[in-house]
Amino acid sequence: MPYSTSVILIGYSGHGFVVADTLLASGRLISGYCDREEKVLNPHQLPYLGEETGQEGLRALAANRFFCAIGDNRIRARVTASLLNQSLALADPAIDPSCRVSPHATIGIGALLAPFATVNAMAVIGTGAIINTGATVEHECIVGRFAHVAPGAVVTGNVSIGDGAFVSAGAIILPGIRIGAHATVGAGAVVLRDVPAGATVYGNPAKEKP
Description:
globular, 6-stranded parallel sheet, alpha/beta, 3 helices
């Protein structure tokens, strides 16, 4: 799969470090990062390019693709939309070499597949989504734009996860379940029923938080 090689990170802290590791492991070049301030902790020794809204940042972004490395779903979606509205180019997905990705899966631009994630046949991963470390997305699942499947979560066959939803670490979603947009599934939850948009569920079996 051909990828553009020069990427600028938007956001560079905990989640950004994972994104940087993944991009570099897959042979991509990171030209620098944009953030509200220059970071003291800089494990990849990346150049600071200022804020993405500043002159220096915008000049760099005009010559490179960007990858929004912000963990919060809503902020990641908002920042990505703002940059796209300025005709800036979102990078190809970041897929760690350790991942198992079916050739019959579809991975959206700006998505992250962290180490040891699995995405099986006919699954669709939306723009800017995160499939985090060791998570499994089974056959024919849909993970919406800017959703997040956290480490170790298991999304079984024919599941639909709405835009901006968050499936916490270790959760299990049974086949055919629908998770609404911006819903939250708690850590370790076992989801047996559809989850409405914006709802929070937790426990085994998962129940909605009042």
